[in-house]
From TrEMBL:
The chain crosses the membrane at residues 25-49, 82-106. This is DUF4870 domain-containing protein. It is found in: Membrane. It comes from Microbacterium rhizosphaerae. InterPro entries: MamF_MmsF.
Length: 124
């Protein structure tokens, strides 16, 4: 009596590609996660999903770049609150985060490509 072959090791092999609808879902969730959790949601999404499809990779990379750019704006704004102009920078960065993250989430849900304006490209 032969024994069945052992199952493949956890994480063995290439990750399975996502379906187009799953890619749209994850891309949308990454945009909303960036709005709620800053750069952490796009970073986690990029690290986990970057090899699962071109659409979700592009959206996670652009969201991560945008959130890192906003992080820089928040740090500069926080420092410049000592001279009061920082409050304006912080308010504008917060408004840009809300507006552009919602636009990106809607575009991702529709399956359209979107690039955030005013973004420094850290991740490609």
């Amino acid at each position: 009596m032969a024994t069945p072959p052992p199952p493949p090791a956890y994480g063995a092999g290439a990750p399975q590609p996502l379906t187009p609808s799953d890619e749209k879902l994850w891309a949308t969730l990454i945009q909303v996660g960036g709005l709620l959790f800053g750069f952490l949601a796009p970073l986690i999404g990029y690290l986990i999903l970057k090899d699962r499809g071109p659409f979700v990779r592009a959206y996670s990379a652009t969201a991560l770049n945008f959130q890192l750019t906003l992080l820089i704006a928040y740090i500069v704004g926080g420092i410049l609150t000592l001279v009061l102009v920082g409050f304006i920078i912080l308010a504008l960065a917060g408004i840009l985060n809300i507006v552009f993250s919602i636009i990106a989430a809607v575009k991702a849900n529709q399956g359209e490509w979107y690039t955030y304006p005013l973004t420094i490209p850290f991740v490609k």
